[in-house]
Design goal:
Elements: H1 4-10, E1 14-15, E2 21-27, E3 31-32, E4 45-46, E5 49-56, E6 61-66, E7 69-77, E8 80-85, E9 91-96, E10 107-110, E11 115-120, E12 126-134, E13 142-144, H2 147-153, H3 158-163
Antiparallel strand pairs: 1-2, 2-5, 3-4, 5-12, 6-11, 6-13, 7-10, 7-12, 8-9, 8-11
Bound molecules: guanine (GUN).
Guanine binds next to β2, β5 and β12.
C-alpha cells in the first residue's frame, strides 16, 4: 500500500488552512461574470474547479463553509466521517468510502453555506478524495468557523464544534 508521504510528494499536495493537504487539479477556462452570480460572490468565477484532498487520521478538516455546493469523491484509503450542520442547525454525518455494504458512500455533495468538518475514522490511516465545486473555487468563498461564533449559533452541537475547530 502506498504511503501518505509518497502520495503527498507525488501528487504535490500542500497544507490546506482547514487541515489536510490539497492541490487544485482542474480549473475550467470558462468564466462566469459576476453579474451572472448571486450577490454573495465578489468578482468573477471559473465555471468549475476540482482538487485532490488528503486527510490523515489524527488530523481533521475544521468546520468551514463555502458559497458553492461541493461534491466529494472517494478515491483510496479509509472512510471519512463528514459532519454537516445545515443553516437551520440540523446535523448529518456521512461516511464517505467504498465499503458500500456497510453504509459508506463513494460520492456526496455538501450544500452551499452548510458548515462542514471531517476526519478519518480509523487510526493510522488516511483518505484521498476529490472535491469539485461549481462555480469555481476562490478563497473569498471560504470561511473557517471560529469556535465561539459556531457554538453561539448552534449550542446544541457544542461538543462536536469543540472537536472540529482550532480557534
Ligand atoms: N481550492 C482550495 N481550497 C479548496 C476547497 O476547500 N475546496 C475546493 N473545492 N477547492 C479548493
Amino acid at each position: 500500500m502506498i504511503s501518505v508521504k509518497e502520495i503527498i510528494k507525488t501528487l504535490d499536495l500542500q497544507p490546506h488552512p482547514e487541515g489536510g493537504y490539497f492541490r487544485e487539479v482542474y480549473r475550467s477556462e470558462g468564466v462566469i461574470p459576476n453579474s451572472n452570480l448571486t450577490d454573495n460572490f465578489q468578482g468573477d468565477r471559473n465555471y468549475a474547479t476540482s482538487i485532490y484532498y488528503l486527510l490523515e487520521s489524527g488530523d481533521f478538516s475544521a468546520f468551514h463553509k463555502i458559497n458553492q455546493d461541493e461534491t466529494w469523491h472517494f478515491y483510496i484509503g479509509d472512510a471519512i466521517e463528514l459532519h454537516v450542520i445545515s443553516e437551520n442547525g440540523s446535523l448529518s454525518t456521512i461516511k464517505i468510502g467504498n465499503d458500500i455494504s456497510n453504509g459508506e458512500i463513494p460520492q456526496f455533495t455538501v450544500q452551499k453555506h452548510d458548515w462542514f468538518a471531517a476526519k478519518v475514522k480509523n487510526p493510522d490511516t488516511f483518505a484521498l478524495v476529490g472535491c469539485t465545486v461549481s462555480p469555481g473555487f476562490d478563497f473569498r468563498d471560504f470561511e473557517l468557523a471560529s469556535h465561539d461564533m459556531l457554538v453561539e449559533k448552534y449550542p446544541e452541537h457544542k461538543a462536536l464544534i469543540k472537536a472540529f475547530t482550532r480557534h
